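fyi for ur records
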Amino acid sequence: MRYKVVIIHPAIAPYRIDFFNSLNEAFDVSFYFEHRAPLEQSFDQEELNKRIHFSYSFLASGLFGIKNLRVGILKILKREKPDMVFVSEYTILGLLVLLYKFFFNWKLKIVITCDDNLEMAESANFAKRCVRFLLLHYVDLVLLVNDQVKHWYEKSLLFKAQYFYFPIVQSDEQFRERLQAAMSLSSRLRVQYKLEGKKVLLYVGRLVRVKNVTLLLNAFKNIFEERKNLVLIIVGDGDERQSLQRLVKPLIEDGHIIFVGKKEGNELMAYYNLGDIFVLPSQYEPFGTVVNEALLSGCYVLCSSVAGASCLIQENTNGNVFVSNDLNDLVIKLRYSLSKSEKKGNKMLFTFDSFMKSFVKRLGAIEQKTNQSKIV
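which gave:
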């Protein structure tokens, strides 16, 4: 029997497509998105559609201008009659799904996806704590993207809900295929930027204050005094681009720091191919999906301690975690990473398929289980 599932999610982003495709293969799924693009990011919709293997619809706007007060979801659920509903985070939308469960289908299974890092989970504001408290008494499963967050939930939130760890990762095989398809462009870029014999440091992301790219630039200037064969490539755009460029103008003019702007699709893959060491310097980062992408592309990764994606790092094996906003610690970890002789190759320590198989199995078990409240 293929269970009927309704998935409600904020928006389509490239790092969630493999996850949604796999769920669509395993179950009879209807997808409903709140927004046509993530609120803080924009992606090439044509590029995304090439990878999407499911149809989807968008929810109507929230009532009275309240973005999550989308009462139309009640009508959708009455029409779809799902066995299970996925909802994102602890919001009014989740409460509406719970309302449907109370009045129309008590047997409905509810799954919450939560992208919080540990700091966000521990320091949730009063409103979020209240909604979380209520929902966790009735939902069946919470999907958490960081293992430390899962341990904290198991220790601190002993309610009906079960907790499952599944980081935001992409299909290894499909991502590596896209990297391979971009190799010819990578070769041209290597010649264009005179990268032969150079160690390439890479950053991919928005150029905004919370990403803390200034820390990376300062660390690079520090290390460059010791290692002149370094090049830092900055892939991305944002409000701070001009001020960041002014900060390192001499190094840009000498070709040691290269700002290339925002890249997507084949171009982005080409830059991942060039990187030897990837740095995520954020001072605020719920997860940080670029860490998974960098590891899949063979980069040794230096990841800020605040990023949820730090759970993907095994110290001195595929990367290092440095203390957020600590220049000295980043320089030490950067110096160590440059001392390693690394070959390009998939540096993820587990596969998307292994997590997906376990998750689908757990969802099947939830549909069949009795009213147990055991936390696994």
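DSSP finds 16 helices and 13 strands in the chain. thats all i got for now
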